[in-house]
Each structure stands twice: as structure tokens, then as C-alpha cells.
Amino acid sequence: MSLLLPDLESEDGAEFWAGTSRGELLIQTCVSCDTPRFPPRPMCPQCQSLDFSWRQASGKGKIWSFVVVHAPVLPAYQDLVPYSVIVVELDESPNLRMVGNLLTRGDGPINEIDPNTIVIGESVEVVFKKVEDVALPCWMRSKK
Ligand SMILES: [Zn+2]
């Protein structure tokens, strides 16, 4: 049963995934107009420049939205429902939203958090969960 995992060698995403494997959340940023973008892609959506650099993000953000998955579409997720999938807006820019799971610990299961306790606007921090050969960005509630 296979999990949904990214292509680590894709032309646009390879640098991003190399970063997560080192524990870094790298964000592609336009050299011409300084606009950050995600997911990685060749051209700046603001100014159409093809020049970019990679900058390390703080890994901090807020829950912008979430869904609770009850009926899995893939067999590998059958035993995990219900689990939540959150959309995080990074502190660096409202342009930067990432989809992931909310965990209680970096190696925790994706269904450990009661979805009824999730609040839009909650502060979260990135954690990199090792899944097969991928360091997958996931999220934990910020400690206050
Ligand atoms: Zn630009």
C-alpha cells in the first residue's frame, strides 16, 4: 500500500526537498521583485522573472484552514481516519500556504490530534517527519 509522497527529483522541487532533509524549510524567492512563492515553479507570478534564490523560512505560521478526512480514497490511509489536514499560512507572507498534517511530535501519527480541538488562526511550527525516504513538512502547535 503506497502513501502519497512527492517526487524528490522533480526539477522544480528538488532543492526544496533537499532542504527538508536537512531540517530546513526553503522558500523560493524572486530575485527581481523579492516575492516569495510556493510551491516551487520556474517563473515569478508577479513579474515573470525566471531568476530566483532559496531562503530559509522561520518555519512559523498560523492555521489558515483545515479539513477532517473521514473516508480515505487510498488504502494506505484506511486505518488512519479520521485525521486532519491543515493549511498553514507562513509568517513570512500571506502568499505562502502549505498543506500538511498537525502532529503532537515529529514522529507522531497523523491522527493523534482531535480534529475538534483545531482552531483557525492557531500558531504552529514546522517539524520534519521522516516518511520512507522523505522528510515531510508537518506542523506542531507552537509552545507558549
Ligand atoms: Zn518577481
Structural features, described:
The protein is mostly beta strands and 144 residues long. It folds into 2 domains: 7-56, no CATH class; 58-144, Beta Barrel (OB fold (Dihydrolipoamide Acetyltransferase, E2P)), CATH 2.40.50. It has 1 helix and 9 strands; from the N terminus they run H-E-E-E-E-E-E-E-E-E. The strands form 2 sheets. A 6-stranded mixed β-sheet has the order 6-5-4-8-9-7. A 3-stranded antiparallel β-sheet has the order 2-1-3. A hairpin with a 6-residue loop joins strand 5 (83-90) and strand 6 (97-100). It is globular. The termini are far apart. The relative contact order is 0.20. The model has no long low-confidence stretch (mean pLDDT 94). The site of zinc ion has 8 residues, from loops.
Present as ligands are: zinc ion
Biggest sheet strand order reads: 6-5-4-8-9-7
What low-confidence regions span 5 or more consecutive residues with pLDDT below 50? none
- How would you classify the helix and strand content by structural class? mainly beta
Write the layout of secondary structure elements.
Elements: H1 14-21, E1 26-30, E2 36-37, E3 52-56, E4 60-69, E5 83-90, E6 97-100, E7 102-103, E8 123-131, E9 134-141
Parallel strand pairs: 7-9
Antiparallel strand pairs: 1-2, 1-3, 4-5, 4-8, 5-6, 8-9
The chain binds zinc ion.
Which terms would index this structure?
1 helix; mainly beta; binds zinc ion; 144 residues; OB fold (Dihydrolipoamide Acetyltransferase, E2P)
Task: Give a brief outline of the structure.
The chain is mainly beta and 144 residues long. The protein has two domains: 7-56, no CATH class; 58-144, OB fold (Dihydrolipoamide Acetyltransferase, E2P) (Beta Barrel), CATH 2.40.50. It contains one helix and nine strands, in the order αβββββββββ.
